[in-house]
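In this section we walk through a basic example: taking a raw amino acid sequence and producing a predicted 3D structure, encoded as discrete structure tokens. The instruction is simple. Fold the sequence below.
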Amino acid sequence: MAAKGAATRQTAGKMKGRTRRWLAGLLLTAGCAAFFEAPSVSIVGVRVVSLGLTGGTAALELQVANPNSHPIRITGVEYHLLVQEPDSTQEAWTTLSRGDRREAVTLPARDSARVSLDVPFEYRSVGTVVRTLLQSGRLPYRLEGQVRVEGPVGELRVPLRTTGVLEP
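The resulting token sequence is shown next.
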């Protein structure tokens, strides 16, 4: 019986140690999140890089700003680029491109940088872009997804959602 009681105390001690480590990790993660502000992203330019039989590739010039007092390392971005339908009374959006880019960029503290993001597109999606530009001379866009940021306890996934208007 004494051996059974000692084994129970030993198991309980291991569980308390694991629980403490788990709580410490949780507090560290929450503390880091409290001192982290998401980078802001906006599209400042677009250029066609290549054209093929069914589509092409455009380079989006992104302005990425780091509002934090420390440098951050972006390790990738999942994106979904949408453009607004012309004459859309209910704000209908068409997908122009979506993808996942894994390339690291380090942003200095309280600074910004231009980052080029190559996005493939299909010609059937470009019709909306052309119609919108011809009708209004401007192109409302929405860029959403997740930015992956290297954190002290692993990778953080920061939501990305920005809207704007490109005026050629």
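Looking at the output, two observations stand out. The domain at 37-166 is CATH 2.60.40.1820 (Immunoglobulin-like). Confidence is low (pLDDT under 50) at residues 26-32. In the next section we compare this with other chains.
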